[in-house]
Amino acid sequence: MKAEKKRVGIKAQIRAENERGRRVATAIFLAIILASAALSAYFGYTILNPSTPPNSIEPTLQFKPENPNPKLKAAIVDQLSLTFPNQAFMETAANILNQAGYSVDYYRGEKVTVELYARLPRLEYGLIVLRAHSGFIIGGGTSTFLFSSEPYSAQEHISEQLTDQLAMARLTPGGPLYFGLGKNFVESGMQGTFNKTTIIMMGCNGLTYTDMAQAFVNKGAKVFIGWNCGISASDTDEATTCLLRNMITENRTVGNALDDAIKIVGSMLAPNDTLEYYPPESGTYTIQR
């Protein structure tokens, strides 16, 4: 009898342990299901309801005219400020635009991230001044790349890297690496479309090849202005100031405005080095005010 009771006690203990195990397994299974549902709901919500841009990509400064025209917005994207700051250029350019009724958003170097570039079409600027380094992809080639100030990482922007939208960019041999943006990023990585925007690319070799210019035009830009050569920061600042004054203050056509801007730094350039516009027919375009 005692042995029978002992056996019954062991069976009861085993059943209790089995029941406890089933309850634990069920609880774990339900927790996994609930966690999966929560994650699915979260990602579904973020896709359908994208958040507003974070503070990291809000303008560093904003310049407002006395009588702003809500349709006239411009941006100065100053990635160059980290290596060649020029406050006088920033203030003069903003003043030229303000006098014509433009509200101006100024983005200092640390703000010039991949995400900022991606959002530019959605911010509805009629004119964008890209005061940024630019050049060719490491290893040569005929593709133009625009510098961001975001340090390069193989673990960031993975899909953009795999689709040749982004690449490694460096200013000097052995220097730090940054994300560089190619034509594929302009066409596929940038969100939305430009609305007949004028793009002024102040860095080197923006129009040595037309791949980057064509990408901006495909994205909705009206005209793309850039150098077909290397250019110093001081020279491009001086020429761009003249260009803005000619196009905005004096309301000249793009082609006519470029002629005088080139004369400003002409003596510093090689015979075939110049500031150009794209597409060719945009030379007769006058920026709307």
What does this protein look like?
The chain has two domains: 1-51; 55-284, Rossmann fold (3-Layer(aba) Sandwich). Helices cover 40% and strands 18% of the residues. The chain has helices at 2-48, 87-99, 114-119, 158-162, 183-189, 211-218, 233-249, 254-265; strands at residues 61-63, 73-77, 103-107, 127-130, 134-136, 144-151, 166-170, 177-181, 198-201, 223-227, 275-278. It has a seven-stranded mixed beta sheet, with helices on both faces. A four-stranded antiparallel beta sheet has the order 5-6-8-7. Helix 7 runs antiparallel to helix 8. The termini are far apart.
Provide a brief overview of the structure.
The protein is α/β, with parallel strands linked by helices. 40% of the residues lie in helices and 18% in strands. The chain has a 7-stranded mixed sheet, with helices on both faces. Strands 5-6-8-7 form a 4-stranded antiparallel sheet.
